[in-house]
Amino acid sequence: MMSSENRSDFSASCSSITEEARAKINLALHVTGQRPDGYHLLDMLVTFADHGDRLDFMRSPTDELTLSGRFGEVLAGDGGTNLVLKSRDLLRQAIGTVAFPVRIHLEKNLPVASGIGGGSADAAATLRGLMRLWGTTLSAETLAALALKLGADVPMCLESRPLIARGIGEKIEAVPDLPAFAMVLANPLKGVSTPEVFRRLATKNNPALSLAPSPPQTADWLAAIAAARNDLEPPARELVPEIAVISAMLEAHGALLTRMSGSGATCFGIFATMTAAEGAAAALHDERPGWYFQATETVSGGA
């Protein structure tokens, strides 16, 4: 029989740390210019959904990555897990010897390459989870630089709360008064090439995002969001006509506002209540069982 002392050692070595990788929703995305190096300048109003991927981290004899979830096989097939591994390796490089081998398990619930930051959210969750497991912290500047190295969306996914991001996504300010929204995420499970969407963008210098002064009521926020845009939606709709179909389906099921997120193909519908969102998601799933529909609530800025 194990002594109690050994048992606590055993449980400590087997204890795992869990991090949620929340879906990132672009409530608005304005393309305001292009830098000489080709990167586009963006103004984005971003929030995060309760729903997302989930990562578990535990000490292991050797580094290992395992996958599950609805979209786990897709990743296994195309090597799309490299952002998680890249995050692990970059963080290990930054902190040195305390970074013992780890087993990472990724439950992939979000569609891959779908405009809701799944890979970036996974990368950010890997940084957060491994810092906890390895018992280390980095300065805000070092962490921000490391996150940006992994991708323009990773710094905002590290925050995982309502924010406005400008530049290429690295200039971030919190939006504490953004309310929570009941939402349905909808995706026809057709990939959209982000470079191709940007290539087809007719105008690169569009008006900036302006939300001041902050609207006090949810209805005012909805009006402010409705007055904004996603400049990538028209070119994405040309590439994937299903985006228009899925938006119309969300509206037909009672969405107060619909828009595409990121470079697509995920669209969101904002609903009056969570019950309405859940009812719409169930009905939409019955109509198109092969597509992705997920009712979720977004986090509020004050959370």
UniProtKB/TrEMBL annotation:
InterPro entries reported for this sequence: GHMP_kinase_C_dom (IPR013750), GHMP_kinase_C_sf (IPR036554), GHMP_kinase_N_dom (IPR006204), IspE (IPR004424), Ribosomal_Su5_D2-typ_SF (IPR020568), Ribsml_uS5_D2-typ_fold_subgr (IPR014721)
Class of enzymatic activity (EC top level): transferase
Record-listed E.C. numbers: 2.7.1.148
Reactions it catalyzes: 4-CDP-2-C-methyl-D-erythritol + ATP = 4-CDP-2-C-methyl-D-erythritol 2-phosphate + ADP + H(+)
Residue intervals of the GHMP kinase C-terminal domain: 220-285
Keyword Ribonucleoprotein attached: no
Active-site feature positions: 24, 153
Alphabetical UniProt keywords: ATP-binding, Isoprene biosynthesis, Kinase, Nucleotide-binding, Transferase
NCBIfam families per the UniProt record, alphabetical: ispE (TIGR00154), PRK14608.1 (NF011202)
Protein name (record): 4-diphosphocytidyl-2-C-methyl-D-erythritol kinase
Gene: ispE
